[in-house]
Amino acid sequence: MYEPYPVPELAREHKKFRYSSLWTFAKQDLRLLAFLLIIGGCIGLGIGYFWICIFAAFSIFFALQLRSLYLVNEWISNRPYDVPPNLDGIWGALLFNVYRAQRQERIVQAEMVGLIDRAQSSLVALAEAVVLIDESHQIEWWNPAAEKLLGIQAADRGRNILTLLRQPSFIEYFNNIDQAPDGLKMKSTGFDEHYVQVKMTRFGGESRLLVAYDVTRMHNLEQMRKDFVDNISHELRTPLTVLSGYIETFTDQEDLNPRWKRAFDQMQSQTRRMNALVNDLLLLSRLENDKKIAKNQIIDMPSLMNQLYDDAHAYNVDYGHELNLDIDSHCDLIGSDTELASAFSNLITNAIKYTPKGGTVTIGWHDDSEQGYFTVEDTGIGIDPKHLPRLTERFYRVDSDRSRQTGGTGLGLAIVKHVLMQHQAHLEIESKENRGSIFKVVFPKERLYHVS
């Protein structure tokens, strides 16, 4: 092991006493005291002043102890990193133990400094930006990548991070990091047309570690995907409308050959399915692009729930389920009525579609003064728990054959997810195979409007 300080002679001399008891060192002082007393006693007997010489022997011993104490104090106060004075007895043992503990502490400190240096060297080499922020929100340290991605300069040390990164989205994330476990994507302050993903973690109270990395390529690919979906969806809409019109015209002819009629019926069914897919893609694209549109309408929830209940009855004609409506909340919602109605309707139609005939579907609106809950409970086929984390992904299907039979596009729950995100809400799903499912939309208190 690396030793930053030399081992003093005292440590070598006293090494054999490392595991000795204090009595071993005390005996040296007792021997000295006994020697002085014997010498003093002999001199005292010889000159006829026995007790005076004994007192003188004690005084000499006491003076030697005071000298040792003075040397110990002087070393600790003025020269703690030098080799300690070479003393015997208890004071020598004390010096040795203090110096040994001090030396071990310095070795540990040297190791910690080396470890910190290696950690800093590693952070400096990272392509990701790393910033340490203290409890007062001031910048303590950063690596070179932070200068490129976040625009931090040498003069920014000790500066409040919120005065450097002033984007409203970052300030909101900084103040509510627990509500965004995936972090925040924002424009880079160091490069134009570049995007960074920012993730913060608390440590040591309110201090924070900020990590940011360049996601420009991923952002551009995502934008290309969105543009492609938007363009292809718009381009498909016109030919599908034309095809649907001609197919409907041919299907309505009375003298149509039965063989052709079956073919036209199948074409019409697939055209409707493609139309539904295109409409869902366009709706999803609009939801993604309209994030900044205000969602501040006051929605009359009893009226909306009754409308959804009536629509569910119309959709339920071919299924014959028992439909129930359960409203025990006096709160309305603040948001977009059309978007929320679309999301709620999506959940209801899914429950009806995936429940065997003659089942039960219950639609509910509740609150507990802190949160609002829109619920859809069914007695349907249920979902294996392993699929639940991925249900809101685009085109994710638990059973592809079943989805085709029911006419699903695989985008319904993705649309629900985007609508809820724009209303600061989230979806909770409880389900067991062959025992039904409960879909619960949870709204924060800020989205509830208490009716007086």
From TrEMBL:
Pfam families: HATPase_c, HisKA, PAS_8, PhoR. Signal peptide: none annotated. Residues 231-447 form the Histidine kinase domain. NCBIfam families: phoR_proteo. GO terms for molecular function: kinase activity. Its EC number is 2.7.13.3. Member of the two-component regulatory system PhoR/PhoB involved in the phosphate regulon genes expression. PhoR may function as a membrane-associated protein kinase that phosphorylates PhoB in response to environmental signals. It catalyses: ATP + protein L-histidine = ADP + protein N-phospho-L-histidine. InterPro entries: BphY/WalK/GraS-like (IPR050351), HATPase_C_sf (IPR036890), HATPase_dom (IPR003594), His_kinase_dom (IPR005467), HisK_dim/P_dom (IPR003661), HisK_dim/P_sf (IPR036097), PAS (IPR000014), PAS-like_dom_sf (IPR035965). Keywords: ATP-binding, Cell membrane, Kinase, Membrane, Nucleotide-binding, Phosphate transport, Phosphoprotein, Transferase, Transmembrane, Transmembrane helix, Transport, Two-component regulatory system. SUPFAM superfamilies: ATPase domain of HSP90 chaperone/DNA topoisomerase II/histidine kinase (SSF55874), Homodimeric domain of signal transducing histidine kinase (SSF47384), PYP-like sensor domain (PAS domain) (SSF55785). The chain crosses the membrane at residues 32-64. The keyword Amino-acid biosynthesis does not apply. It is found in: Cell membrane. This is Phosphate regulon sensor protein PhoR.
